[in-house]
Design brief:
By secondary structure, the protein is of the alpha/beta class. Helices cover 42% and strands 17% of the residues. It has helices spanning 12-24, 37-45, 55-63, 86-94, 119-136; strands at 3-7, 30-34, 50-53, 67-71, 98-102.
């Protein structure tokens, strides 16, 4: 299965998602996709197997992704202080891959029924969801 993690800004959330995925599924390949070099680098340091940076790379990789992980803002054009371009948001939305999103209110999206929870717990849940999807398709 092709797992991609998308992040921007400093890459802190993406780094944590990659680390959680690698802890849960050490043999699973994870591709880091950053909107900038700092985000990609942070995810690679956390153990991502490959990485690419920028809108073109994100759009290309989303076409064949089985699972896309990131914060809710990756679906929202101009989220993350403008780093999520309309093209990136469309690529994520249009991908046939499963999306596992971590809700962060600072991305400008609030989801009813989801209360404030510690970020590390949400990231663990995202990794568990990805692991369950991977085991279903193994």
């Amino acid at each position: 299965m092709k797992l991609v993690v998308i992040d921007g800004q400093g890459g802190g959330v993406g780094r944590s998602i990659v680390a959680a995925l690698k802890a849960r599924m050490p043999g699973q390949q994870v591709i880091a996709l950053g909107t900038n070099v700092q985000a990609t680098t942070a995810m690679l340091k956390a153990g991502a197997d490959a990485g690419a940076t920028g809108e073109s790379a994100i759009r290309y990789q989303c076409r064949s992704a089985d699972i896309i992980l990131g914060v809710t803002g990756i679906l929202h054009a101009n989220a993350m202080m403008g780093e999520i371009s309309p093209g990136i948001a469309a690529a994520v939305s249009l991908s046939e891959g499963q999306k596992i999103l971590v809700p962060l209110e600072r991305c400008g999206l609030m989801i009813a029924g989801v209360g404030k929870q510690p970020l590390d717990g949400l990231i663990r849940q995202a990794a568990d969801m990805a692991a369950a999807l991977c085991s279903q398709n193994a």
